[in-house]
């Protein structure tokens, strides 16, 4: 969730990155997980401080709970309709 929220809240100032791991057999690797999960009632939308006439909102607001309920219901399997993705909330120019 946090990767999607970052793109929307920052109005595309920060993009999500793909997580890649490279095995190094000669050096230890430490991972420090950080989890951020807003409540199901939270509406995710671009921060008001980042939206103005020169930089309009690039995403429609969406509800975290509904977003995750839809994704979890699909279990990321192929369905007759496309699994909901963050780009579905992108406002096209």
Automatic annotation (TrEMBL):
MF terms (GO), sorted A to Z: L-ascorbic acid binding; metal ion binding
Alphabetized Pfam families for the sequence: 2OG-FeII_Oxy
Isopenicillin N synthase-like Fe(2+) 2OG dioxygenase domain segment(s): 6-38
Keyword check for RNA-binding: no
Keywords: Iron, Metal-binding, Vitamin C
PANTHER family xrefs: OXOGLUTARATE/IRON-DEPENDENT DIOXYGENASE (PTHR47991)
Protein name, as recorded: Isopenicillin N synthase-like Fe(2+) 2OG dioxygenase domain-containing protein
């Amino acid at each position: 969730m946090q990767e999607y929220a970052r793109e929307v809240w920052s109005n595309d100032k920060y993009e999500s990155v793909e997580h890649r791991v490279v095995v190094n057999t000669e050096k230890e690797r430490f991972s420090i997980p950080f989890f951020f999960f807003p409540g199901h009632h939270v509406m995710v939308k671009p921060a008001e401080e980042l939206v103005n006439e020169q930089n309009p909102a690039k995403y429609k607001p969406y509800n975290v709970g509904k977003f995750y309920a839809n994704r979890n219901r699909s279990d990321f399997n192929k369905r007759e309709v496309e699994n909901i993705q963050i780009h579905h909330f992108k406002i096209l120019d």
